[in-house]
Amino acid sequence: MREITNDIILLASQGDLQSFEIIYKAMSGFVYNVALRIMNNREDAEEVTQEVFLTTYRKLQGFRLESSLKTWVYRITVNCAINFGRKKTVINNKIKTYDESAAEAMVEGDVQKEIEKEHTNKVVNNILSVLNLEQRVCVVLRNIEGLSYEEIAEALNININTVRSRLKRAREKILSLRKQVDYEYL
């Protein structure tokens, strides 16, 4: 991700669209990926991503340069995803597996890689789908995005021990599910 200077942040907070576009281009990929892992649905992740950048644009004037912009945007992303998930009565666990136009253009070697990637994504999404929203958020930020416990606590505005307990419960739930599946296939 491209480094965003304080000058760009200040200009964007004053309404400079070109500076905000720099922020958007630098951060939209990771915002979408975090939203996708939390929502487990592409369309929902796209809506959350749009909401994140609308919120970021509206609230950028209030951003104090005390923390990193990335951490601040993580917090907005997680909050938007949680709010979206709460508003939605049924979470659609099906994810569109691939983009048809990209699939038509693939060569044979790419098809095998795409199948493996699709399988991995299904496994990850199935695992994430058994967790509650708070646990899923922590797992995504820790294991997929690579944030430290401190960064997660800061991004979610929660105590670090809460992060630890959510991750512990998520791991226990995943291990329990794995033992169930292993037992059923014995």
Question: Concise description?
Answer:
This protein has 186 residues and is mainly α. The protein is 76% helix and 0% strand. It has one domain (6-184): Rna Polymerase Sigma Factor, Chain: A, CATH 1.10.1740.
Give the number of domains.
Answer: 1
Q: Determine the number of helices (DSSP H or I, runs of at least 4 residues).
A: 9
Largest sheet: none
CATH superfamily: RNA polymerase sigma factor, region 2, helix turn helix motif
CATH topology: Rna Polymerase Sigma Factor, Chain: A
What characteristic shape results from the CA principal axes? globular
Q: Explain this structure to me?
A:
There is one protein chain. This protein has 186 residues and is mainly α. The protein has one domain: Orthogonal Bundle (Rna Polymerase Sigma Factor, Chain: A). The chain has nine helices and no strands. The protein is globular. About 8% of the residues have low confidence.
Describe the SSE topology.
Blueprint: H1 6-13, H2 17-39, H3 42-59, H4 69-87, H5 100-105, H6 108-129, H7 133-144, H8 149-156, H9 160-184
Helix pairs in contact: 1-2, 2-3, 2-4, 3-4, 4-8, 7-9, 8-9
Question: Key terms for this structure?
Answer:
mainly alpha; Rna Polymerase Sigma Factor, Chain: A; 76% helix; 186 residues
